[in-house]
Amino acid sequence: MSTRETDHAARGPRLHKADGSPIRVLVVDDEPTLTDLLSMALRYEGWEVRTAGEGRQALTIAREFRPDAIVLDIMLPDIDGLQVLQRVRADGYETPVLFLTAKDSLDDRIAGLTAGGDDYVTKPFSLEEVVARLRGLIRRSTLAVSDSTDPRISVGDLTLDEDSYEVSRAGVPIELTATEFELLRFLMRNPRRVLSKAQILDRVWSYDFGGKSSVVEIYISYLRKKVDAGREPMIHTVRGAGYMLKTA
């Protein structure tokens, strides 16, 4: 993850609690560099952040801090993230939990969600994806309100709602993954502007994908199948330069 991502990680409407106080997030991971980067990105959102490097420390902080959301690594040096979550739930807290883990098997995903987790992000990830997932969890928990009077972005008949994470074209809903959503949002915030693969990689993905521009091509193709299928194309390739979103 580049430090420049932290500048990009939060450009949607800010969320805060109904009483105006900041959203509180607890970040639990035993990699200090990662917790520092996440903390920076979340504080840029205007949220209050605490961190923990071990499971038992996380439980102590959670009981005192009363976070509105928890970002929780599964692999911790003392007790694992699943045990942390079970104890949080046993304490009576229904705090939304976003799991972070290097594991990517279906069994691990099922274990995390069965234990009471709300969402799951696999390392390596982009800071923007974590922020996007957290915003979605917090909004669905009805804890937060948005500063924005109109969170919608529209280009032609394509509309994206940054609060509800809903996308539609000509009134027809389009289901997108978190990464597809962030890619489309970047394109829609820059209509009629050519965006290079390097710019898209920096904005949507972590540095771990550095040089692998094929991931951009793959996700552009995914978006085209969902956004442009059977319609006038809006996502255009500018040969040798990048991609552009524009109406016909």
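^ that was protein a. below is b, sequence first then the tokens
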Amino acid sequence: MTTLVLALVAGAVIGLALGGLGGGGSVLAVPALVYLLGFTPAEATTASLVIVTLTSVTALTGHARDGNVVWRTGLLFAAAGVLPAMLAGAAAGHLPQAVLTIAFSVIAALAAVRMLRPARTGPTGPVSAGRAGAAGAGLGAVTGFLGVGGGFLAVPALVGVVKLPMRRAVGTSLLVITINSLAALGARAGTGTHLDWAVIAPFTAAAVLGAWDGKRLSHKLKGGTLQRVFAYVLLAVAVFMLVDALL
């Protein structure tokens, strides 16, 4: 019963962040699975991809209905990341767990710092295939290696590189996250990683419901309140994971 409650609470928090911010929520899925639910880092990164994929699809439908998904840009961005996501996903299964934990904590800390920086906005402009492709490839590699959706990197890249307005960048990032996560899952399908569906299923269900609430919450909070609170929580988790891995 305790495990079920923890899975539901953790899933709801991650769904809120993913639906409200267009990314970032998946970064908490791995530490939640490891420290609250007893998964190994390898199991957690694979389970996280399942959770992120299903939750992102749910959040994507809402943003698409509102016209905030730029499909051509998102598909171009994601296409560049498919192969890196698959290669990194396959490589991650052969690395020591401590290496995965340290790498994850560093990326999480960088994500938190990035979220605390003032958001940049820019006018919609023509998509540079080269720049979008390079950014998409890097994002795909991070997704495959660490089992995260990468929205915390996709949103600033879509704003800064592709010049999308913030609201469209959030919606489009969910398309990129979905495709990259599916590619990474495909690469891990034959690795024999154990998945505890009794935990993953309620975790995912809570995250999906949370994603809908997160989207509504994002319209009510002013000044990026949700983003700042989440960033501080994420930074604390990253520091804890790094200390735990090094000691």
